[in-house]
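Hi everyone, sorry if this is the wrong subforum. Our group has a chain we'd like a structural model of before ordering constructs, and none of us has done structure prediction before. Sequence below.
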Amino acid sequence: MKRQYFKNLSFSLLLFAYAFLPSCTNDEAEIEKIIYEGRTITFDVSQSFNESPDEQTRGFSEKSDTVYQELINDLQIATVVEQDKATNSRVLTETVAEGTKVLAFIIEKSSNRIYKIEELEVSNDHRLTCEVPNVNVEIVFYSYNSTIVPTTILSEGDYISSETAINTEYVKSTYNAHTPNGPDLIFAKTGTITPNDYDLGTITFKHLFSRYKVRFHYDQGVKSFQVNASSISASGAEISINTGEYLDKGGSSTSAVYAESNTTAESLDSEYRIFIPRDNISDLPIIMAIEYVNGQSFLEVPVNHRSTTLTRFFDPGCSYTIHIYLKTIGKIINGWSKNYYQWDATALYSAGSKPKPGDASYYNPSSGSAVNSCKDCPSQEDVSRMMASGVYWDDKGPAWKDYMGYIHTTGVWVMKKSKWQAEANGISVVPVQTAGDMQRTSDDYIFIPASGYMSYPWPITNTQTGYYWTSTSEISIYFDKDQMWYDGVNKENGFSIWTFKE
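Answer:
Right subforum, don't worry. Here is the predicted structure as tokens:
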């Protein structure tokens, strides 16, 4: 079976036959002359997605289908695709809503011709009623699972073969994340109905396309999010009227999911989105890109710094949950941000506004230890021990965003406080070495961004230097790719703040 996805949320379904029609024969003429005495039959109706027989409901764990990507400012995204089971929070077999429109093809078995095409509506007790002739027939049902009736160019008397197909065409080429969910094509087919059958019990509609939702997990808590799923769906499908199987017509489209809650929780679910699984994922993989989290926009961040790539093959007619895990990975030094402070000021040093005495952003004039913004920074003695334990420059460290919103990866690796040498012997300057895989992958090291400094009226962020305050009055450190040292400086400088917490 091939597959496909819905491009946007608005599209129509055309039913038509590809089969060639032979010239009318005497047998066909006799069929047309038959006058059937009709009767009414009734069905209970339900709908279901294919559930996974073997996939376990699980929280996040290391799996072969887990996809990782490091983001900016010490964040990491991990994505896991899970096929839903009936034991999950949403049972996969459901009723079909009252008022749902259904197109019924009543096919006379002896001739494989359409006896009648009837528009039906699901009643308030979730039933369908259909008129059929007193001969052996079968009925094929199609529905958008909505109050819209599928349209067709098939006619009564048309011959139904394995080539008879339904074609989907979309009338929009762009997707709006806030548009309601698109049509959901469902299909059912009866067995042979004899003249003695009146109540045929329940027929279950199968979803021809699939659906997905995103469950967003964040170790800092999540209250709202939006995620784009680029190329998750095909643009259309050609569907067999006999079997409900379809052929991917090519192309791809993007879908977006979002969710918002009044409270913060460890995870948050979006609503489901319908999509047509694509045949060829390897040539055009699916990109799951974060747009917003808790009101914070990620749109200015390059896509490769806020997304994961999926190459998983999705099956038709299935329901999926895509788990996205956003977490802090602890590679960038604690307390760091894109902002700058004068020494031990209570408020940050903003661009274009030079602090004056009395301002909250003005430095602490005390000669003692810091009590405000710099109180958790390393002391002068801490800095000596840190430098004595080794400093390593890296052009390709963890991604961080500067004061102006640009992304960089430059900075130095130093050992965590628990790994420092016991004695520093008054070291105030050390050469900077080149970082390798040991520094990048070991849990013994922490990264300090080369985030420059604030020089009125604008910050100097050349990404090749770092300036950080200590908790010791008038003492700061400086580093570039050649060396690191500490020295006495003017408290009016706008430097970064940091701390060692393990």
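For your construct planning: The longest strand covers residues 210-233. The helical segments are 26-33, 380-388, 437-441.
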